[in-house]
Specification:
Number of domains: 2
Strand order of the largest sheet: 2-11-10-5-4-3-6
CATH class of the largest domain: Alpha Beta
CATH superfamily of the largest domain: Naphthalene 1,2-dioxygenase Alpha Subunit, Chain A, domain 1
Bound molecules: FE2/S2 (inorganic) cluster, fe (ii) ion
Number of helices: 10
CATH topology of the largest domain: Naphthalene 1,2-dioxygenase Alpha Subunit, Chain A, domain 1
Structural class: alpha+beta
Distance between the termini: 13 Å
């Protein structure tokens, strides 16, 4: 079997690999943080962690979305300690010694500042440390590295696939939940990157896998490790889900479903009437923060919103018929991989990019190898060991 078609399971469990991913992937890539509707008003913020670095994403007093380290420049205390909220009066005040900053990142007050005069501490030089931030389709991305290309360049053709369903009209996040999953982050990515596992879900078996149309569905693998599962008609009507046609998402056909997976960890699903965004924060080799958002249109009526919420929750909510099964699957994988009892995983399906082809998983790992420099079939080897097979 070619080395691209199986995985050394230590890529999930090895602490050195985890550290390498933090340094070479998460510290250098664009990372989805939230949708702009979640920070719709001036002063609204969310906090996040990227490559271990705590961050703030906020809308400043002028309405511009900005990002900073969530670290006080004085002595390193956390500035904002909630996962989301709103900053009053354009002031972020550190709780430790009460230094204050405005939402443009300037240090605007230092208590008892006279004691710094002798050493000439310059207030203009102790502002918040900014982080690169860019928006696409209202999705807010941040990047810690200076070498990454601009966001659109990094997304490449995957951006075109997002524009149809997500860029036509303003969106609004109506659902948010988070879960700490006892599994490696890549195992969850793979649930959105391979169609083969749809066999797990009774819902997907009834609405998708068993239908002739499903077999015509194609994956497209993009440079940069991104993947698109092109739109297909799914039999949602078989599942007694109502109101599909009239509330179809713009850019979608009735009962359509599309998936765009952005390397490393952002997964966009649009299914007929609702959207879902999953994103991940790796916390340890076997611990991952999963954040799930449900999206509708910004100008939905109350009735339309209620319908989208219902459709979302039936399948994708924390008690829906799909998502909990994925978590269940990856947590069993993690336990078994951690035991060391299974050395390799097989990602060898070849079906001309059809729905159950493993090509998108292999595309993810091609980028993973480029970024980490390690071979995915044997972490003791350099990535060049795989190049001949690519
Ligand atoms: S650490 Fe923030 S004011 Fe001192
Ligand atoms: Fe799944």
């Amino acid at each position: 079997m070619p080395p691209t078609h199986y995985l050394d399971n230590r890529i999930y469990t090895d602490p050195e690999v985890f550290a390498l991913e933090r340094e070479r992937i998460f510290a250098r890539c664009w990372k989805f943080v939230c949708h702009e509707s979640e920070i719709g008003n001036r002063g609204d913020y969310r906090t996040a962690t990227l490559a271990g670095v705590p961050l703030i994403v906020l809308r400043d007093a002028e309405g511009t979305v900005r990002a900073y380290y969530n670290i006080c420049p004085h002595r390193g205390a956390a500035l904002l300690r909630e996962s989301a909220g709103s900053i009053a009066n354009d002031r972020i005040q550190c709780f430790y010694h009460l230094w204050s900053f405005d939402t443009a990142g300037r240090c605007v007050n230092i208590p008892e500042a006279g004691a710094y005069e002798a050493v000439g501490l310059d207030r203009d030089r102790v502002g918040l440390r900014p982080v690169r931030v860019e928006l696409f389709c209202g999705m807010v991305f941040v990047c810690l590295g200076n070498d990454a290309p601009p966001l659109l360049e990094a997304l490449g053709p995957a951006a075109d696939d997002m524009r149809g369903p997500l860029g036509a009209r303003p969106l609004k996040v109506f659902h948010y939940h988070r879960a700490e999953i006892k599994a490696n982050w890549k195992l969850f990515v793979e649930t959105n990157t391979e169609g083969y596992h749809e066999l797990l879900h009774v819902f997907n078996r009834r609405t998708g896998v068993g239908r002739a149309e499903y077999r015509k569905r194609r994956w497209e693998t993009h440079a940069g490790g991104h993947n698109t599962f092109h739109q297909a008609i799914i039999g949602y009507d078989r599942h007694e889900l109502e109101g599909r046609e009239e509330a179809t998402f713009p850019g979608m056909v009735p009962n359509g479903h599309i998936v765009v997976d952005l390397f490393p960890d952002a997964m966009f699903n649009v299914r007929a009437t609702v959207g879902r965004i999953d994103s991940l924060t790796p916390m340890a080799p076997g611990l991952t923060l999963l954040e799930c958002r449900g999206i509708g249109l910004a100008d939905d009526t109350d009735e339309e919103r209620a319908m989208r919420v219902r459709h979302h929750n039936q399948v994708w909510g924390p008690s829906g018929q799909n998502l909990p099964e994925d978590i269940w699957a990856v947590e069993t994988q993690w336990r078994n991989m951690e035991s060391g009892a299974l050395a390799y995983s097989i990602v060898a399906r070849e079906e001309d990019r059809a729905a159950m082809d493993d090509a998108p998983v292999r595309n993810f790992y091609a980028e993973w190898r480029r970024k980490t420099g390690r071979a995915s079939h044997d972490i003791g080897l350099d990535a060049s060991a795989v190049q001949a097979a690519e």
